Amino acid sequence: MSREKRVYLYDSTLRDGAQTQGVDFSAADKTAIARELDALGIDYVEGGWPGANDTDDTFFAHPPEFTRGQLAAFGMTRRAGRSAANDPGLQTLLSTPARVVTLVGKTWDFQCKVALGVDLDENRRMIADSIAHTAATVNEALFDAEHFFDGYKSNPEYALSCLKAALDAGARWVVLCDTNGGTLPGEVAGIVAEVTKVIPGSHLGIHCHNDTENAVANSLAAVMAGVRQVQGTLNGLGERCGNANLISIIPSLMLKLGYETGLTTHDLARLKHVSRLLDERLNRAPDRRAPYVGDSAFAHKGGLHVSAVERDPRCYEHVPPEAVGNQRQILVSNQAGRSNVLARFREIGLEVGAADERIGHLLETVKQMEAKGFAFDGAEASFELLARRELAEVPEYFRLSSFRVIDERRWNARGELITLSEATIKMEIAGERHMTVAEGNGPVNALDAALRKVLLPVYPVLGDLRLVDYKVRILTPDAATAAVTRVMIESADAKGNRWTTVGVSANVIDASFNALHDALTYRLFKSGQKAA
Amino acid sequence: MSREKRVYLYDSTLRDGAQTQGVDFSAADKTAIARELDALGIDYVEGGWPGANDTDDTFFAHPPEFTRGQLAAFGMTRRAGRSAANDPGLQTLLSTPARVVTLVGKTWDFQCKVALGVDLDENRRMIADSIAHTAATVNEALFDAEHFFDGYKSNPEYALSCLKAALDAGARWVVLCDTNGGTLPGEVAGIVAEVTKVIPGSHLGIHCHNDTENAVANSLAAVMAGVRQVQGTLNGLGERCGNANLISIIPSLMLKLGYETGLTTHDLARLKHVSRLLDERLNRAPDRRAPYVGDSAFAHKGGLHVSAVERDPRCYEHVPPEAVGNQRQILVSNQAGRSNVLARFREIGLEVGAADERIGHLLETVKQMEAKGFAFDGAEASFELLARRELAEVPEYFRLSSFRVIDERRWNARGELITLSEATIKMEIAGERHMTVAEGNGPVNALDAALRKVLLPVYPVLGDLRLVDYKVRILTPDAATAAVTRVMIESADAKGNRWTTVGVSANVIDASFNALHDALTYRLFKSGQKAA
């Protein structure tokens, strides 16, 4: 492996990523994600900041075993006016099992003076002493140069002298951080080119934030200018607009720019899986539009495009989707032709001959339904049910006879204005009549509660089904509340599978019921359930 | 204004953005968004593809008046073996009111041969003929060179000869498209530099897709290499991973790279508003982490950062948030802006002194309501009512005592499955009790019908009120149908005034009623109606 083409990956999901608004890792989350990063082939996995909070202390007390990469701990250079050996923060940091330690320090003269009130020479000594002490204690010491690009623009000599001090003191890597995320790729390339005249690229890292939507480009620009370590996070997690997204950087480095990383091509094909795993841990909806790994990343709409893609994928796919563990998705939309429908069939594993007359019939049904306002684009589960019903594969698990939902706003006994929703349903399962009533925070929620009350004892597999999103859209806005409504429901099971169903009706409750019906049926069908 | 520093902006939200999975613009949406783009200072607003579908035909039949920019129509070069003048597609395209027409054509030899089966010379003639015919008919002809970067890499001479043919035939702009989104910034810079040797940058445009998360960087790289038109979409809408995000590109061009656009600094400060407006139209949750305009883009967590930011914002803010209409957000102590509220007051024509104590009280109320899920950004009418109620200016036109809505799905006498919604309301007007019942196509429609049945005889001015849009958003998606819901209702009167109101509640019917209540009250208040 040629040394110049090897780029080292440093993941900060568990430290900088933990700063994301709404993200709150447990120590168990950290352990699971660290294992996954190690298995993927990431060289350095930053676990957190020992001493900063209980979660990080718990994690570092018993970190997972690493088989391919190394665990890194993050902390600060020593305080002003102390020796490195007597700095309590550094002592905590160096006492964990992590044998790689990353220290952050200042290189921006303005920040030293204004934010810290520290003399420039003392700041540089803080870097040198701390790195020397760390390098003598663990396997690798890294220096994160906070605000380096701002520092370089303000006072290049001073900023470079800080990097040099770290390198001379034994830092394995000196990492250039664009802390406030404001530097553009052209500047990064220019400044890194200057830095490499003083520090060899084989000792340089880059750490970018996405405040101008250029974190990925800045990281690639730095690598092309000579840097050989890239820091980032899974799915671009991080405070404000996020850190550089390793999930986007890795395939561009490996598939397009010819660099080598710790990942094999086999590992690369697990990229989508790892991206999803993080979302599942955080209980976040995956970003459909994520480069390389999003569900829409290789989605094709419209008959013309589709036949072009099938003739030669290069026209509309910049890499083979399988290379990153993704797959081509053919959307069924009102622009759909026969080739879309056939392609979609193959995707869901349905083998139907191109000449099968049922295709023509299904196409006709799809067109009629779309004219009524159905959108199968975002509702693949409803499309699959429709197709499989055409082939008579889907049992009728339950049959609704009637429902009634009452929403009532009134003053309760304590003089509060309250609104209650209550649903009564009558349904048939295996020839037997069921009738029940349930309350909810609205008519649809009440209906959902009543349906489950009847279905769960018969079909326990529905126990882990959750509704994760509910969207209503008015299709002919000029008729407003009297218009046709389209309801999309996204559901999930305990394994992290997600599927979307659609219902359309002049009555929004009716549309919601239809989407709910498909959501439940899809779960039953996919679990191989027979009709009761 | 120096010509070399002027970059022209071309928005494709209504055409390429319409390809986004799950996005389905109505003609009314298109008109509203086109108006907003024109008001922002975008040079070219691409409205769609005349002849491609009913929505685009409806839009182009009566497009809005433009005051600053120009409307563009998109289509294809003529078919092989036809004259441009006799090509039906071109005829449709040239017959709309749009005086700028953009034609897409091939420049990739591989694609001509494989996807089209067209001879390379004939392909180049198709470009030249179509552009010449278009340039002679409308004000400006643009040539979109599909797959240009792939084409250049495959056969640079041929790709360049196609561009040259378009320019020589009278194209105002030749636009380099990275159609499958696979080109990286370094390559874009290198290839554009070569192209500018043949075509002057003042005639070159760039059109990027985000498949490697580099669409913004690619666009900036092209501008820095000489290109003077940038194509993109609001919020990066577009198929697969999206198009280049103009919302991120514009501030980097203007605030960081010193370029001029059609936007003034005053326009730039409306950027967040425009970004939000699109999300509201599409009923999408805004992306918190969006560069420049996201709620988290200038959010600061934790004491250290916050005091550093307050000592000097440059440490953690790469541009002043106000420059793009955003604001700093301190996550620990949520300090909302007094000046923001004052600015909103001025906007609705309310003169209140900065020292007025009612401002503090209103600020507190707004904060509490926003914490509950109210969003006044897209619901100015509800905000105005809230503010005017604080100043005791809004009469109580009617008071609801209670309502009950029943939705029933059952088999009717003819054996059809029908769903009926029926609302009963009790209310007080001028001390008198009213009780009525009405039917509708859903609970909200029934409620609306019952309200009007009572109100219209008392307040005839409500006769021309129409509800033009109704949107529901779930605010805590992980609780799905049991979550808090926000309802936005857009209303209009016969004069074409439109206003949006908001209601929030755990119960969707309750939220809808509150938004309806505000919609009716706003109409009464604005017409100068006294309480009955």
Automatic annotation (TrEMBL), chains A, B:
SMART domains: LeuA_dimer (SM00917). Pathway: Amino-acid biosynthesis; L-isoleucine biosynthesis; 2-oxobutanoate from pyruvate: step 1/3. Its EC number is 2.3.3.21. One of its GO terms (biological process) is isoleucine biosynthetic process. The keyword Amino-acid biosynthesis applies. Keywords: Amino-acid biosynthesis, Branched-chain amino acid biosynthesis, Isoleucine biosynthesis, Transferase. Residues 7-269 form the Pyruvate carboxyltransferase domain. It catalyses: pyruvate + acetyl-CoA + H2O = (3R)-citramalate + CoA + H(+). Transmembrane segments: none annotated. SUPFAM superfamilies: 2-isopropylmalate synthase LeuA, allosteric (dimerisation) domain, Aldolase. InterPro entries: 2-isopropylmalate_synth_dimer, AIPM/Hcit_synth_CS, Aldolase_TIM, Citramal_synthase, LeuA/HCS_post-cat, LeuA_allosteric_dom_sf, PYR_CT. Pfam families: HCS_D2, HMGL-like, LeuA_dimer. GO terms for molecular function: (R)-citramalate synthase activity; 2-isopropylmalate synthase activity. NCBIfam families: citramal_synth. Belongs to the alpha-IPM synthase/homocitrate synthase family. This is Citramalate synthase.
